[in-house]
Amino acid sequence: MDTWLLISLLAPILFALNNIIDQILIRKYFSDFPALAIYVGALVYILFIPFVSIFFWQSLKIDLATAGLLISLGFASLFIWIPYFKALDKIDSSVAMPLLQTNPVFVYALALAFLNETVTANIVIASFLILVGAILVSVNFNQIKLPLKPIFNILLCAFLVAIQTVLMKVFVNQEISVFILSFWMAVGFALASIIRLLLSRRLIFILIEKLKNSKGRIFILSCSQEISYFTSLTLSFYALKLAPAAGVVSSVMSVHALYVLILAVLFSHIFPDYFDDLRGKNKESRLLIIQRLCAIILIMTGISILGYFET
User: Fold this and answer.
1) What is the pLDDT of residues 202-220, one digit of tens each?
2) Are 123 and 309 in contact (CB under 8 A)?
């Protein structure tokens, strides 16, 4: 097996673990204030930014205008991801992540509207498969009422990420490495979290209280979450460097949603209170897992078509 292919298959496992930790954090500690989970994650960056700056500064140097733009995009990321964290209190991560993978559809729609890019049959077919998969993964036939607000929040997050992606495509040099992009956006992300907390003493007191009550578990989970995220991001970067084309990497890494479903099923046996949709062993739970698996396959197929089209 080629090295790039192996890395492309391994990196999404860490991304998926990051999503599972998101759900545990929200449901165990932050169900009353979901946004606090993202603030804690952003604050963890403060521990890593000085370390990365010291050891990799020569690799991180870019012009001031580009750094400012990336910091601004990272600053906005804090607010872009809040709807996602709010949704995780109501819907499972095995639903949230496939819904987030509608992001390429929004990117192509925005590129068509504002960048005058052309639409091909490949894009139409891929977008259709992704949207059908998103609808299928959202529906639970065992429930009469759809969780419309959480679904809307996830789709809103996907749309806002698409806007961010298009802005990066327009204003940021595409030859800048993922490592540099991630670092400067992390600086903006951490800065936004600090400012937001400083504007609300109440949030600071609530956060301190939760950290005390958890006896450090929140901090440990957040650190492991960010470590898994940056490790997976680094692996993704190397896969892109080694692969024959970027599109094939995105196609392979579409297994991310499948990994989330597998981990969610496994964790439903360890933490049944936080993965209630999948915890049962009855026929309804098995059918729900099969339904989500079929939806994920549709989404993966759509993303793969887009990925190969880009090549």
Assistant:
1) 888 998 899 889 888 898 8
2) yes
Helix (H, G, I), strand (E, B), or coil: what is residue 295?
helix
| Euclidean distance between CA atoms 35 and 179, whole angstroms | 26
C-alpha 23: how far from chain center: 12
Note whether 180 and 67 are within 8 A (CB): no
Q: Give pTM, 2 decimals.
A: 0.83
Q: By the 8 A CB rule, do 310 and 247 touch?
A: yes
Instruction: Name the H helices within 33-147.
Output: 35-60, 64-80, 82-87, 93-100, 103-114, 121-138
Each residue's pLDDT tens digit, 19-36: 899 899 998 899 888 888
Contacts of 46-51 spanning 24+ positions with Cβ under 8 A: 46/190, 46/194, 47/223, 48/186, 48/226, 48/230, 49/183, 49/186, 49/187, 49/190
The whole-number pLDDT of residue 192 equals: 92
Q: Which two tokens stand for residue 63?
A: 């012009």
In contact, 94 and 65? CB cutoff 8 Å: no
Neighbouring residues of 137: CB distance < 8 A, sequence distance ≥ 6:
94, 95, 98, 99, 291, 292, 295, 296, 299
